[in-house]
What we know:
The structure holds 2 protein chains of 2 kinds. By secondary structure, chain A is of the alpha+beta class. Chain A is 33% helix and 19% strand. Chain A has one domain: Alpha-Beta Plaits. In chain A, the strands form 4 sheets. A 4-stranded mixed sheet of chain A has the order 8-1-10-9, with helices on one face. Chain B is 74% helix and 0% strand. Chain B is globular, with a radius of gyration of 22 Å.
Amino acid sequence: MARYAMVIDIDRCLGCQACVAACIAENLNSDASELEFQPKQPFSVLSGLLGIPKEQVPPAEYFVKKAVEESDKYIDVDPEKAKTVAQEVVSKLWTRTEVFRIVGGKYPHVELMLYHRICQHCDNAPCVTVCPTHASFQREDGIVLVDPNKCILCGSCVTACPYAARQVNLLTKTIDKCTFCAHRVDKGLLPACVETCPAHVRIFGDLDDPNSEVSQIVKRHKAVPGTPHGPIRHTAARVYYLPSSNYIVDVEKVEEEKEKEAKLMTDQS
Amino acid sequence: MPSKLLLYAWYGVLILLVISGIYYLHAYYYEYEAWETKDIIPWGLLVPSYVYFALASTGSSIINSLYTVFGYKGPNEGFEKIIKHGVWFSLITIIPAWTMIILDLGRPDHFLSMLTSFNIVSRIAWMGVLYSFFFLMLLIELVYFIRSEVNEKLKHWKALELAIAILVLFATIAVHSNLGEVFGSSTGVPAWYGPHVGAYFIASAVLIGSAWQLFFVSIVYKAKGGLSENLKEFFVKVYNKIFIIGIPVLAFFVIWNLIVAYYYPPAWEAYKHLLYGEFSKEFIIVEVIIGLIVTFIVAVYSYIKKNFLLTFINSIILIIVGYISKFDFIISGEIARLSFNYGGLTNNLNPYYVRFWPFDYDIGLPEKMMLVLAVSIWLILLTLGEQILPLERGEKPKKLFVFK
C-alpha cells in the first residue's frame, strides 16, 4: 500500500498563489470532488423544525455579497484596505491551503519566507483520535479525510491540530481541510496544487516507494516534517519542507563578504 | 413560600428570557458573524459555560457523597435534611451544561453519528456516555430517597443506598476525569495539554459545587421560611471547612499550572495573557486576590465567628469567581495558541500565529443569548422541582405517581 507524502521546496517558491487558485478551482463546488462525501443541506432537520426556508442557508453568493458590502465601507477612504477586507471575507470560503509571505526583522537583517500552510496528513493524526464520530478518518494510504455527513462540528479536531490545518467550511458548515486531492490520487493523478505549480515547489508521491522523487528528496536532503523548522508535536507529519538556505538575508554579512572578495581581488591584482 | 405574585413574576421573566433566546437561535446558526471565528476560537463562550455548569453539578455531587457514601451527617444532621435538595441540584444542573454543549455544536442535526459512529478513543464521545450514566444514577438516587420516605423496607435497605451512592460517586469522578482529559488531550492548545487539567477541574468543582449548594439550599429554605439556626450552624461549620480545605488545594493547582507552564514557552503564553495581558485584571484581582486569598480569609473568619451571612456572601463570591476563572483558563489558552510567536522565522514557526494573529476576541449577541437561554431553562426547572418534588426530610410524595 502506498504511503503518500508531499515535499515543499520553499526556495523554489515564487509566491504566485497558483496552488491556492488550483485548489479552489479543483475542489470548490466541483462535481469531481468527493462525490461520496457530499453533505446534506446544512441544518436540514433544524431548518424544517424552525420553519426556516432552505433559501436562507448561506450560499457562496452570500459571502461574495458580504465581501462587497464590507469592502464598500472602505472603498472611498482607503481602497487598499477595501481590497484586503474583500479578500479576507472571500478567503474564508476556501482555505484548504494558503501561502503566506512572511517578512520579519529590520533592515539590514531582513527575514523573508513563503510559508505553505496545508494539512500534514499525520501518521499519528490527533484530529482522527479526538473526533467523536469518526468523521475525521485516515485511509490506508495515510490520507486524512473528513466525512461532512458525520461531522457534528464540535471543534475538538481544531483544538487538537497543532498545524492550523482545519477550518469550518462555510458552505457545508462542517470541518474542512486539504484532502491531498484524494479523488484525483485515486485515478492516478497528482493533487491539483502539485500539477499546477510552475516552479515544481510541491512534490507529491509515495514515501514507501524508494524510487519516488519524494522518497529520494526526503532521504538525500534534510527535509523536515511539519513546518520549515520541524515538527511542532510528535504527530509524524507527512508534509516535508526543504529548509531554505535563503530565508535569512543578512545584508550586512553579504556586504562584508563582498568587501572581503573585493579586497582579495585587489590584493591578488 | 414567597407570595404567588413574586413566583409568577419570576417564572414570567424566565419565560421571556427563554423566548428571547429562541428568537436569537436563527441569528446564532445562520448569520455570518456567528461563523467567522469558529475555526479561530472553536470553543467560545458556550464551552467555558458548559464546563462551569458541569463542574457545579459534579462538585455538588461530590459534596452529597460525604453523606451518601461516607455517612457523614454533619452538625444537627444537616446533610440528612438537605440531601434531597443537593441531589436535585446536581441532577438538574447538568441540563444547562447539556443545552450549552448541544447549542455549541455546529451541526446538531448530525448528532446521531455520536451513536452510530462511536469513536472509542475519543474523549468527547465518552462524555455523552458518562453524562448519561451520571444523570441516570442521580435520578435513581433521587427516586430512592423519595420512595424510601414511604417504603420502610427500602428505607432500611442500607446496602442498596450505599451501592447507588458509590455508583453516583464513580460516575462523578469518571465524568470529571474525562472532562479534564478532553482539554488535556488537545495537542493543538499547549496551555491545556497534559494531565493537570483533570485535577484542576476536580478542585474547582468541589468549591463551585459546595458554594452553589450552600447558596441554593439557603435560598430555598429562606423562601420557604424555614432557614433555622440549626441549619445555619450546619452551613457555617461544614461548608466553611470545605472552603478552608478546598481553596488552598485549588491554589496549589493554580500555582503548579503556572510553574509547569513557565518551563514550556507555548503554554506560558497563556499565562502571559493572564498575568500581563487582557485577562490580567480578572486573573490577578478576581481569581487570585478575591477568589483565593479573600475568600480563604473570609471562610476562616466566618468559621471562627460562626457568621452565616459572611459564609453566604463568600459562597456568592466563589460562584462568580468560579465562572470567571474557567472562562479565562479556556479562552486564554485558545488565544495563546494564536498569539505565540516561537521566536520568529529564524527559530521556529507557529502556523496559528502566521494564520490568525492579531485577533480580537469578541462575543456576539446571539452567542450570549444562547447562554441566557440555557440558564433560564435551568432556573425554570430548578424552581419547578423545588415546588413539585417532596425534597424535605420526612416529606411524603403526593403528586407524582412514580414516587408513591
